[in-house]
Amino acid sequence: MPIKVDIQPWWIVQNGSVLVNDVRDLPKEEKMVIDYVIDSGPTEVANFDMDVIQNLYKRGLIYFDVPVSKHDRIVVPTLDNFVMNRLTGDYFERTLYKIFVSMDKHTNAEQLAQVLRVDLNLVLNAISVFYRLGIAYRAPSELEIQPNRSIDVGLNSSRKQSGEGSLVDLLYDAVISDCSSKLSLQNQNIHSNASLSNADMCTSLTADSLESKRIAFMFDSSLTAILMMGNLSNSLKCHAVTLFEVGKLGDESLNSFLSDLAEAPCLTDVEMERHNEYLQVLRCTIEYLRSFAELDLIRCGSLLGLDSAARMRLLCKNYRLLISMAPLRVDVSLVNPSAVATIGSLNAEFTSPWFQLYIYKTIGNGPLSLLLRRGTRLKCLPNPFKKYSHLIVTSWAHDPTIITINSCLITINEMLQHNAVFVQATNCSLEDLQILHIPFPEYVQKCTVDKDSTTTTTTTTRGPLEQHPYFWKIIELLDLTVSCGYVTMIRIGCSSKLDCENFKKAAGVEKKRGLMMTFGPSAMNSKDPRKTPSTCNSDIVDHYSCWTLYDCVFGVPLFDKRLNASICEKLLTFELVNFTNAKASLTFNTKLLHQVKAFIAKYQTESVAQSRHTDDNAAPYPEVNLLFYEGEVTIWDRVTLRECGQLTSNHGRPG
């Protein structure tokens, strides 16, 4: 028996192939409908009784045309019971997904066709399919959705459910609430300043003004994976399906999403503690960003389905600022930084080992590192690696892993068959690795590093890690005052693994135990230092020489509550979200990307016989082997290879 179809009153009834035998035994009401459509032609469903229409449709005597106007604006609700089996090479299916991530309540079908540069009839047919399947509906012209912008409401409701909460929870909420209280006054100043400079802004705007544009929070598939894990509610899983398949959750749907996040069950299972905190931080981050402007959540992978030109037209038309979660996957490259203001790592160069080498070279400090091109057969490691016990090994476009140096060659050579590999030295295992994230922006005036020096002597210097000279040096040299994120520091140890263990004892077992309770034990299991919560406080005193800069990550992290709260506070303190800083953000991103690409170009040689990376959305593969040692990046060639010490086990030598 056919299921009941959700038929809209504005659909058009058409007669099917109707024979005399088909209508002979029909009830009178159904015969009258058939006769009317035959005599009068196609007619709207609203003119008939819905039950009669349903019966005729189930009998196969009528069908429907779903009319779509070029002025239609489309809204996609949360997908429920949605299953899509994607087919390779299906052009119309690709078009459906492109329209999925591109449409919103502000854009009509004609504008959508212009943005995507596809035929209008193709867009109208695709929208008609969405209507027919019930996965989208036509927005009324008077649709004006004004979401609740109150941060306090969400926080208070969460507190009622979870009780008084821990000290970290109260501190986190206090920071966010304090930012909220300051925001209304700041927004008044922002709007007044914007009105004064309106004439200047108009020259760089499209048809929509900056004030009518929204903010986009960009995320990768790791967020949807967390929403789908564990015993979370079905409604949250529906939102996860929507975020993955549609690739976007518009501002009009966020109230429902936030409500489901607030009502997510507090599971006591050890493996779920990290996910529960992640959801809480995600909810507070969304509420906070919505206090500035309308907010859309967009999955980076869905935007990659658009060609680069269409992607930029879409983003420039609808958004005045893009803010990404941190860190993003290393294969995400979405935007031209000179076209739209961005806070985050939305260029593949910023998430690749190239950027790490660039900042190491810029500040003259970093872990001993070796970047190996794909296809290299590694027989030994350079001599400087002999003093270390472990390696942080990163296969291109993958998360890093930590392995022992004694049996590393088999693992590295296996990776080199498929990808370039980034190898970094440390004296700490995964369990003992000490990590610290220091948020930025910060005022450059605090920097105490000599501007003219390329290196800094820290062999005997001790102090709070938040005052580490190399942190302030990267703040100054990269001018990290118009973007936000965090600098990841790792403790490589001064001499041996024993040094790492001694620091662990000196830091205090109780302090680390408190961190474990705060972040959940499973949060400590990530092998990527950029995704692992800090294992010590930033005010702890230690030798600066034992710590080194690992990476600089742009965006808003969701894995660490305190780090997230600190960066959200800096968004307000440094006024990074207002209109006036958009130009500064564009300039910063353009300049930094140009410098990183120039650095990459220095080591890309056309003479090397190696297949190139053909993905335009990814950073280029290295064409030579590069070694970072004692503040310098050098080419590690075959001559250097013959001179290096034999650092391999008997069973670890490749054949």
From TrEMBL:
Protein name: Protein FAM91A1
InterPro entries hit by this protein: FAM91, FAM91_C_dom, FAM91_N_dom
Annotated organism of origin: Trichinella papuae
Positions of the FAM91 C-terminal domain: 212-633
Protein family (similarity comment): Belongs to the FAM91 family.
Coiled coil region boundaries: none
Pfam families on file: FAM91_C (PF14648), FAM91_N (PF14647)
All copies of domain FAM91 N-terminal, residue ranges: 2-140
